[in-house]
Design goal:
heterodimer, A: alpha/beta, Rossmann fold, 3 domains, 8-stranded mixed β-sheet, 20 helices, globular, B: mainly alpha, 18 helices
């Protein structure tokens, strides 16, 4: 793969230049990585068969990746954007116009990366992509003038830090930024990013350059996820000794990285005509990062309600069963589930605890969980089923449990809810909104189970036991959850919402704020 | 060849740059004589062995004469010697060129002098001026009127960015005193704080589990080879794992038992090092269990330092031996000084 863009039109049976109705921009997901966002992209294209789609797949490096999804018939073309690649060995002489552009770049880029927004992005785009005076990736990253840009930014942003560390951080950061700014834009009527970050940056750039509408739909809040990652990263050197002082205002490399991603998000939010997310709790963070409240919209993912509604509910005579549906990986905190099963086992001796999901993704962790089960003497109580048909097992389950440390909008809660099974889940992502309701006129508080603290096996066990002991409570909460899922989380509802969203902007065709498209 | 001067502190300073004229002439003479010697050997049918010995003697004599006298840097001299030995006259000619290039291509002496002086710290200003300059360049920060804020207060009243920065710090520089803070962050009302606390929690949990696993292997190796420093390092690390708050009770018990066994071996092998006893004290303080070991440690208390006495006091609190605690704190003539350490002993670490 080349740095910048490469087009995979061959796989889609369509030409590279073909205009699509919607250009979906996806980072680190579809079609190369399976997961929630990838499934959503696949579902979205298939759910809108009357629209044509192109996909920009953003990946960090030039490794050849194997697509995990078969493109739907309405995906006309796929472009690959590679963010980072090795330095080229070519050396080219200086050019006066390059020197002048590099001089203009220093203040603009410094402002943009240290807390800028769409205004700075516009300036940056005009410096980098002025028709007839475009700067190449070589000019921006590898020329003598690029080195002068680094020196200028070092002096402007963090002269107190190590230049060597700054240089490599700059290269990594601006490598991705410039690759995004230099991609040849696919022709489309709407640009739709699946997150902020580089995907959102490209959508913002597309809106700025073409004047067409850009949208962003966030599952988790990308900027927050990156911030967490950056704050804990040991590959970023701390070049300023801040000791224990969290108020130290000096900018270090971590701050530079965080501010850069915040700038990308701010640009995206400011430029996008509509900012959607899967659940309401995300909107606070979106606003704090610069999104205007009247451009925000929640479009929840949905499930096939009728399929799960047809399933039987576990009866009173069945062995009391709690189940965690998910992969056996640390982020699901299966160990807390096992510990909760041990605590519940003391209260309800014949309880059965199922972990329904694949164990091969992290074999060491799965083995650790098995050891814990053996150590706690729960071999007769806890069972790791491996991957099984959900429809076959749900009718045996009285309570669905989710002990995850991080989630966006977990579909297992919706599937359990559609089947009328009450849930006990940790307070992550959209769990509270799904189980208790948003608490407004559209979605009044009505408990479909319980929310617990993270890493709190005793609380989980207590709530599970309450549900197992009372069939009436179980039924009441199960029905409540079923009603909410049917009302708010049906797949058809999500499909109609996206159709309305696209319809409104395709009809209008210009980048502007559309308050209420439905 | 170069003339070097040193200051005895490991710093090398180049005196006259590269090769001076007198030495250049000398090397040129060496090249000419060597060339003549080889030519004579070829023409006059002199025994090759004689030519070789004469060649080697000529080089050795010159190398001795041109040796660097006071220098620590022998690079050019060594390089010259090797070149001449390998390539004979050609090597000599090469070294003349190299020396001349060094002489005319090196930085100015005063520039180097200033740089060497700065590097060595010889010419540095007094600490106050250095601090002032560091503050001006931003490498040091003018200390705020108050010290760093208490972490618990940041977590309760700070901005989201401050809370996340704090959790990042906890993730990268964990201490077991931070465990209650991390647990509080897991229950925070703000979802980004909960999410980050969960990420930190999982990461640290895995780190400590892996570390304990590695320690077990290392302790087996250390025991097999009777390597006391390695055993002590394992004991220290296992104790840190046990105190981390991330391990199961059974793992904690196992880690403490192994750390105790290793510390006992180390204590018997090196009576001068107090660290094994300190580790043993921390183990007793953590478990509240004593199998007679505490009496042995208390016997050495009169000669122990403040830190050891504090640890012993903790052990006595943990095991409920209040009379012994009173004796430890108030016996002897310096009981006032000892008692002054008292408040620090029983304040929970997380609250300090």
């Amino acid at each position: 793969m080349m740095r910048g863009a490469s087009i995979r039109g061959d796989e889609c049976g369509a030409g590279a230049a073909r205009k699509a109705d919607v250009c979906l921009i996806v980072e680190g997901a579809y079609p190369y990585v399976t997961g929630g966002v990838s499934s959503w992209v696949d579902w979205l294209m298939r759910s809108q068969p009357d629209l044509s789609f192109s996909v920009v797949a953003i990946s960090p490096g030039p490794e050849q990746l194997r697509p995990r999804y078969q493109p739907p018939p309405n995906q006309v073309v796929q472009h690959d954007l590679v963010l980072h690649s090795a330095l080229s060995r070519a050396r080219r002489p200086s050019r006066p116009e390059r020197t002048s552009a590099a001089q203009r770049l220093v203040p603009v880029l410094s402002r943009f990366l240290s807390g800028g927004g769409s205004a700075e992005l516009r300036e940056l785009v005009s410096v980098v992509n002025t028709p007839g005076k475009e700067m190449s990736l070589y000019d921006l990253l590898e020329s003598r003038e690029a080195f002068e840009t680094v020196r200028g930014m070092y002096a402007a942003l963090m002269p107190q830090a190590s230049f060597l560390q700054f240089y490599w951080a700059w290269r990594a950061l601006c490598g991705g930024l410039f690759a995004t700014l230099k991609l040849e834009l696919p022709d489309a009527r709407i640009y739709h990013a699946s997150s902020t970050g580089y995907a959102g940056l490209l959508a913002a750039r597309a809106a700025i350059e073409t004047g067409r509408p850009a949208l962003v739909t966030e599952h988790g809040i990308y900027t927050n996820e990156r911030r967490i990652e950056i704050l804990m990263a040991d590959w970023i050197s701390d070049t300023v000794d801040k000791g224990l002082n969290v108020d130290d205002p000096r900018m270090d490399l971590r701050d530079l990285w965080i501010k850069a991603f915040e700038s990308y998000a701010r640009s995206c939010y400011e430029v996008c005509s509509q900012v959607t997310t899967l659940y309401r709790d995300n909107q606070g963070l979106q606003v704090s990062l610069g999104a205007e409240p009247d451009r925000l919209k929640v479009i929840a993912n949905g499930v096939d309600v009728e399929r799960f509604a047809a399933l039987d509910i576990a009866g009173q005579d069945e062995r009391p069963t709690m189940a965690l549906i998910g992969r056996v990986v640390p982020i699901k905190d299966i160990r807390t589930f096992v510990a909760a099963a041990a605590a519940a086992h003391r209260e309800v001796p014949d309880i059965r605890a199922l972990v329904i999901g694949p164990t091969e993704e992290d074999p060491a962790y799965a083995e650790e969980c098995r050891r814990l089960i053996a150590e706690l003497g729960l071999e007769d109580c806890v069972e790791l089923t491996g991957p099984v048909g959900l429809a076959e097992w749900l009718p045996k389950v009285h309570v669905v449990v989710l002990t995850s440390l991080s989630e966006a909008q977990p579909l297992v809660l919706l599937e359990a809810g559609a089947a009328g099974i009450p849930c006990v889940a940790t307070n992550v992502g959209a769990c509270r909104e799904i189980i208790e309701g948003a608490g407004d006129a559209d979605d009044p508080l009505e408990h479909g189970g319980f929310i617990t603290d993270l890493v709190s096996p005793e609380q989980v066990a207590d709530r599970v036991c309450r549900l197992l002991r009372s069939s009436s409570l179980r039924k009441e909460m199960g029905e409540s959850l079923r009603r909410r899922v049917r009302r708010r989380y049906a797949s058809m509802t999500a499909q109609a919402n996206y159709a309305a969203l696209y319809g409104a902007f395709l009809e209008n065709g210009t980048a502007r704020h559309m308050g209420d498209f439905s | 060849m170069t003339e070097q001067s040193g200051n005895g502190g490991g710093r090398c300073r180049q005196g006259p740059k590269g090769i001076d004229g007198r030495r250049a002439r000398l090397v040129a003479g060496l090249v000419a004589v060597d060339l003549l010697l080889i030519c004579a050997g070829a023409v006059a049918e002199i025994d090759p062995l004689v030519v070789l010995v004469a060649h080697a003697g000529l080089i050795a004599g010159c190398a001795w004469w041109l040796r660097p006298t006071r220098a620590h840097d022998c690079t050019l001299w060594t390089f010259s010697l090797i070149l001449v030995l390998i390539a004979g006259p050609l090597g000599g000619a090469g070294i003349i060129l190299l020396g001349l290039a060094t002489r005319f291509g090196a930085p100015e002496r005063d520039v180097l002098e200033a740089w060497y002086d700065w590097l060595s710290g010889e010419e540095r200003p007094d600490p106050a001026r250095r601090l002032y300059e560091a503050i001006l360049t931003g490498r040091e920060l003018k200390p705020p009127a108050q010290g760093p804020r208490r972490f618990a207060s940041v977590l309760e009243h700070g901005t989201l960015a401050e809370k996340q920065a704090l959790l990042g710090h906890i993730g990268l520089n964990y201490h077991h005193d931070y465990f209650p803070l991390l647990c509080a962050a897991l229950r925070s009302a703000q979802s980004p704080v909960r999410a980050q606390a969960a990420a930190v929690f999982v990461r640290l949990k895995e780190q400590f589990r892996r570390r304990l696993h590695d320690d077990r292997h290392r302790s087996l190796e250390a025991r097999r080879f009777g390597d006391a420093p390695a055993m002590l390092a394992c004991a220290r690390s296992m104790l840190a794992c046990a105190e981390s708050g991330f391990l199961r009770h059974s793992e904690v018990r196992e880690a403490l038992a192994e750390a105790k066994a290793l510390s006992l071996i180390c204590a018997s092998s090196d009576a001068a090092d107090a660290e094994p006893e300190m580790i043993l004290c921390r183990i007793i303080a953590a478990t509240g269990e004593d199998d007679g070991l505490l009496d042995r440690l208390l016997a050495a208390a009169p000669n122990a330092g403040l830190q050891m006495r504090q640890l012993l006091a903790r052990c006595l609190v943990a095991t409920g031996r209040h009379a012994d605690l009173h004796r430890l704190l108030f016996a002897g003539e310096d009981h006032v000084a000892r008692a002054q350490a008292f408040p620090a002993l029983f304040v929970p670490e997380a609250a300090r």
